Amino acid sequence: MSPTGRPEGELDPKRFSADGSPVSAGPAAAAPADDALLVARGIAKRFGGVQALADVGFSIRRGEIYGLIGPNGAGKTTLFNVLTGIYAPDGGTFTFDGHALAGQKPNEVAARGIARTFQNIRLFGNLSALENVMIGRHVRTRAGVFGAMLRDARTRREEAAIEKRAFELLEYVGVAKRANDLAKHLPYGDQRRLEIARALATDPKLLALDEPAAGMNATETASLERLLESIRHDGTTILLIEHDMKLVMSVCDRVLVLDYGKRIAEGTAAEVQKDPQVIAAYLGGDVTLNLKGA
Amino acid sequence: MRALFDTRGKPALVWAGVAVVGLALLVLPFALAGVGTAWVRITNLAILFVFLALGLNIVVGFAGLLDLGYIAFYAVGAYVYALLASPHFGIHLPFWVILPIGAAVACLFGVLLGAPTLKLRGDYLAIVTLGFGEIIRIFMNNLSQPVNITNGPQGITLIDPLRIGEVSFRTTDTLFGLAFTGPIKYYYFLLAVLLVVIVVNLRLQDSRIGRAWEAIREDEIAARAMGINTRNMKLLAFAMGASFGGIAGGMFSAMQGFISPESFILLESIMVLAMVVLGGMGNIWGVIVGALLLSFAPEILRYTVEPAQKALFGRMLVEPEVIRMLLFGFALVLMMLFRPAGLLPSATRKRELETGREGRRR
Model's pTM, two decimal places? Predict the structure, then answer.
């Protein structure tokens, strides 16, 4: 599929091989193309004079944890917002699970199977933790106004199922004991986990997490890592923006590096941290970097 | 009704309480009629305001959309009833046909107001809805030319009362030795409808739809990211709220027998909003309390201020109306200082938090 509204010439075919692996990536990153859950091509987004994203392409395979890193202002969150329909891209296409995605509204994207969390937690603060997750079930349930008013057998069954699933998800992420507390009264780490539970409630195929470890201490990050591993193990693909390099390097199968809205590298964690462009982006010079210890 | 009264622990006690309240409500009109039939009418109007406040609560309390023109839907319902059951057009349909039509037309107007204001929030939405309310009132005032639809400022008179079978709600019937006057009949009818409206509201709040509204109120972007179609849900809130207003308007028409645009001024919208805010936005019981308080307070003042002044000073120094606005303003200031979330704030969550609601626990 050719990206609409952009001259073909602007796409560098070398950078968009079938599996999305870049020139700098080694053979380890190669995989069959039909394995891709999300394929992005030539994504561009401009805010006034600022080119927030320019010609960004990548592909995420089913069942992997895909990292998205880059210095502050690199365009990571913008890419998230474009992907989830909060911003309309100025160019490029997303193909998710065989369907074109670009230009869809956030609720349609969620219905398609992409759920997200937010960098600055956006829970429904005055609702209980359980209700937050129950709202996540909205998109997978059907009861309408008349069902609500008549409260017929079907609606009651659905309602019970929503509640059951919501509670299971709270247990899954480990905040079940705070189920009836208002979301805003939860400790910070639990709010992060609750946001993940709420996103999981939409039965996503792809879970997009925007800095889930931000502000967490080492213990909390370690338990978040276990949570991410088990989510992946249970069959949900994860797209992860994160500044905690230790977490990224240990949990991500592959990593995409953005800088100034451009893709500068992609590959396994080990490959990316040896990439001179990445090192330059992070440290602004020609130095060696040991990200393992970060 | 199970969700209505928490029967956990002592069901017998709760049901006894329900029985006592029910009995009191059944006997109430006769007690009021003893004081004066006017009080039965006042009570009926208070119940209508409870309807309005509950309808507005869906829009303002649940979905968080500030609507300052809510009375327009009341007006639409009232005019639909008046036009379809009066000599004005010579149409006399029965109420059970008109009330749903009134609700549907009001619902349509709700969507008409909702559609262009979808992207507005807070102050901006308030201004647009305020304008909408005025537009409706001005239309009612001027739609007497070139074709006389609303009869302009003169309003519509001789509107049919409710009629169930042979029983007209205008005449007095005697049953079991009790005189059922018109207002008393309306009282029972309104009470029955009120019960339905309360149950519908409680169920809506505690449903998939109600949660979606709450999500929009809390954080619209997060709500969308969770797959909630915020456009449809907001329109639905406007439509539902407007329908309640339309039904209340229809009953107002039937009860009064006369309507004119003067009954649907901005101040009425503000009063309904004040009822919602005073009682506690989003809490159905709070809203009911707020509506009853603000409906009865002026009437009580009317009957107490004058005699009190006569007794104290020998003559009347300040009009009851002036005192009413003074006290109203004072009460609102006190409310904002001491109970900004309303008399019965929507923190019913507190109860949930301490005890856990049945089914919400495992």
Answer: 0.84
